[in-house]
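Table S2 (continued). Query chain:
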Amino acid sequence: MPETASKIAPPARATTSGAPVRERFVRSPEVRRMTGLPRSTMYRLIKQGLFPVPIPLLGTKVVVWLETDVRAYINAQIAAHNRSESQ
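Corresponding output:
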């Protein structure tokens, strides 16, 4: 891993309970595993403003996502599905 990328630490965020959560970067293969989306669909959804925007790591050609952003996307998809099922 490039030295620059290893020194970047994502900020801590608070959960709904107020407890801090340590952010974690996830790269494209893991995001695809988490969501089940192919790469082309992820980038189409990003362009449409429907998927979290990746974060470029300085000095590299690598982009990452915040795990919490990806999980929020997944939870929103589940909530939308549940709403449509209940109607």
